[in-house]
C-alpha cells in the first residue's frame, strides 16, 4: 500500500475543532440604591432593584434597555423625613464592553428615557431623563457573572419652593445610582 493512502483521513470521522459558544443577550438583575436630588425635603436614599437586557452586536458593542424602581425604606419614614418618595426609570442606550483581565470585564454606557417620581407631587409626573455610567463584571462561569455598576441620571422636576410665577419651571437634577447583581448570558 502506498504511503499517501495510509496518510488519508476519512473526513466523516475527523473531529471538528471546538468553538466557543456565541452569546447574543445578557440579562442582569440586581439590588440598587439612588440619591434623592429630585425628591424634596427628604434626607435619605432610596433602595430598590434594577433589571437590564442587553443585545450584543459583536465583541465590543451592545444595545441595552433598563428599568429600575426605588422606594424609601419604611424605617426611614420619620417626621423629619416627610413623604413617601419613589422613583422609577425606563431607559435605552448603547453599551461598550471589553475583557480587561482573565475573568474580569468592563463596560461603559449612555442612557436616554423617562423618569417618574411618585409620592411627592412633583411636576412633571414623568420627566425626560438621560445619563451615563459604567460597571465591572467578574465571570464565575461562561454564562454567569457578578456585576457592580454605577451611573448618574439627569431629570427635570419642579422645586417645592418655586414662586407662583415659576410653579411649573423645571430644574435639572442629577442622581447617583449604584447596583450589584447577577448577569446571565444566553
- Count of discrete domains: 1
Envelope shape: elongated
Low-confidence parts:
none
Helix vs. strand class: mainly beta
Whole-angstrom Rg: 24 Å
Number of beta strands: 8
Query: Major beta sheet, specifics?
Result: 8 strands, antiparallel, barrel
Distance between the termini: 51 Å
N-to-C series of helices and strands: HEEEEEEEE
Mean pLDDT: 82
CATH class: Mainly Beta
The name of the CATH architecture is: Beta Barrel
Bin the helical content: under 10%
Helix segment tally = 1
What keywords describe this structure?
mainly beta; eight-stranded antiparallel barrel; 1 helix
Descriptive notes:
Strand 4 and strand 5 form a beta hairpin. Helices cover 2% and strands 58% of the residues. The chain is mostly beta strands. The model has no long low-confidence stretch (mean pLDDT 82).
Can you describe this structure in just a few lines?
By secondary structure, this protein is mainly β.
Itemize the secondary structure elements and their pairings.
Elements: H1 3-6, E1 25-34, E2 46-56, E3 61-71, E4 86-101, E5 104-118, E6 126-139, E7 144-158, E8 170-185
